[in-house]
Design goal:
With about 325 residues, the chain is an alpha/beta fold. The protein is built from eight helices and 17 strands. A hairpin with a 2-residue loop joins strand 13 and strand 14. It is elongated and about 70 Å long.
C-alpha cells in the first residue's frame, strides 16, 4: 500500500535537500555533532558530478575536494571525475549517511521546528516528512540556461556533454565562449567531428584555462575549428542551424548542437519554499555567520548562496558551509 502524501512518513531532526559534496558535508558535520540528518536528492549521490564529462579532470587538488576530514587520493596531481565519484561514495559509506536517492523534494511547508516536507520518489510515490530544521544545498548544474530558440527541443540539441565519440564524422555546432565550450570543441574536433563554435562575444572568454585557450585559438586560426564570434542562434532544424552573424544570417549544415550555455540554480524552488532573493543578484538573503535564511529554520549551503554569481562558490569553499550551519543547528537543538 502506497503512503499517502497526507500522512507523515517519518520524523527527522534535519532534512538536507541535495546530495552533492556540500549536502554531504552538511550531513557529516551534523552527525559529528550528534544531530541526525536525512539527505534527499532527485538524482544519485553527487548527481552533478555524475553528469560531468566522462574523462574530466578537476582543476584543483584532491585535498581541496575533501569533506569530513576524510583524505582523498588521486593517481595524478589533480583528481578525475571517476576518482571524485569514488571518494564521495566512500565518504557516504564511511559516515553511514542516510541518503534517499531519486527522491525529489517538491515543497516545504510549516514553520521552524515543525516543517512538513513533500517528496516524490522514483516510483512516483508521494511522501510527507516532518523535520525540525532544513538545509537546502541543491547546487545549480541541473538547470541549463536555455537559448529559447525554435528547435531547441529537438533530440539533437544537448545541454550536457559527456564524451566526444558519438560526434565522429558529424557536423557539430557548439554554443558558448567559456571553458566548457572550448574543451568540448577541442575534444569533438580531435574525435573526428566537424566543429563550429558560435558565441555572442567578440572574443573567447579570458577565463578559459591558460593551457586550453592557446589550443582553441590555434585550432580556429588554422581553420580546423570554424568560429562565429558576435553571433547567435536563430533556429535549429533536423539538418541545419540558422545563425545571425555580423555579416548577416547564415544557415549551416548540422547534425548536433551542444549548447554549453551554462547552468543556473533552481530559483523557482527557492521562491516556492519562501526564500527571499535579492532583486539584482538573485542571491538569497541569509545570515552571513550561520547561513540561515529569512525563513527561520531553513539554511542555504553551497553555490545557491551566490545566486546567479555561481563562479563565486565552488566545491572548494562551499564544503565549509556545513561547519557553520551544523554549529548553529546543533547549538539550537541541544538547547531544547
Amino acid at each position: 500500500m502506497s503512503t499517502s502524501a497526507s500522512q507523515t512518513h517519518e520524523s527527522l531532526e534535519v532534512a538536507v535537500i541535495g546530495a552533492g559534496p556540500t549536502g554531504l558535508s552538511c550531513a557529516i558535520e551534523l552527525k559529528r555533532r550528534g544531530v541526525g540528518a536525512v539527505v534527499f536528492d532527485k538524482g544519485c549521490v553527487v548527481n552533478s558530478l555524475y553528469h560531468y564529462p566522462t574523462h574530466m579532470t578537476f582543476f584543483t587538488t584532491p585535498e581541496l575536494l575533501e569533506i569530513g576530514d576524510l583524505p582523498m587520493t588521486a593517481v595524478r596531481e589533480k583528481p578525475t571525475r571517476a576518482e571524485a565519484l569514488k571518494y564521495y561514495r566512500r565518504a557516504a559509506e564511511h559516515y553511514k549517511l542516510d541518503i534517499r536517492q531519486y527522491e525529489r523534494v517538491d515543497d516545504v511547508q510549516g514553520a521552524d521546528s515543525e516543517f512538513s516536507i513533500l517528496t516524490t520518489d522514483r516510483t512516483t510515490e508521494s511522501r510527507r516528512y516532518r523535520a525540525r530544521k532544513i538545509i537546502i544545498a541543491t547546487g545549480y548544474y541541473d538547470i541549463p540556461v536555455m537559448m529559447n530558440v525554435p528547435g531547441e527541443d529537438l533530440p539533437k540539441v544537448l545541454h550536457y556533454y559527456t564524451e566526444p565519440h558519438p560526434f565522429y564524422n558529424c557536423d557539430v555546432a557548439i554554443i558558448g565562449s567559456k571553458n566548457s565550450a572550448a574543451i568540448t570543441a577541442l575534444e569533438v574536433y580531435r574525435a573526428g567531428g566537424r566543429v563550429t563554435l558560435i558565441y555572442r562575444s567578440a572574443e573567447l572568454s579570458s577565463r578559459i584555462k591558460y593551457w586550453i585557450l592557446p589550443d582553441i585559438e590555434n585550432r580556429i586560426k588554422n581553420n580546423e575549428i570554424e568560429a562565429y564570434p558576435e553571433s547567435s542562434v536563430l533556429q535549429i532544424t533536423q539538418d541545419s542551424i540558422r545563425i545571425a552573424t555580423p555579416a548577416g544570417e547564415e544557415t549551416l549544415k548540422n547534425d548536433f548542437v551542444l549548447a554549453m550555455t551554462g547552468y543556473s540554480p533552481d530559483l523557482e524552488f527557492l521562491k516556492r519554499v519562501g526564500i527571499t532573493l535579492e532583486t539584482e543578484t538573485l542571491k538569497p538573503r541569509t545570515n552571513a555567520a550561520t547561513l540561515e535564511s529569512e525563513r527561520p529554520g531553513i539554511y542555504l549551503a553551497g553555490v545557491i548562496v551566490a545566486g546567479m554569481h555561481t563562479s563565486e562558490i565552488f566545491i572548494e569553499n562551499g564544503r565549509f558551509h556545513g561547519i557553520a550551519i551544523a554549529d548553529d543547528i546543533a547549538g539550537r537543538l541541544h538547547q531544547t
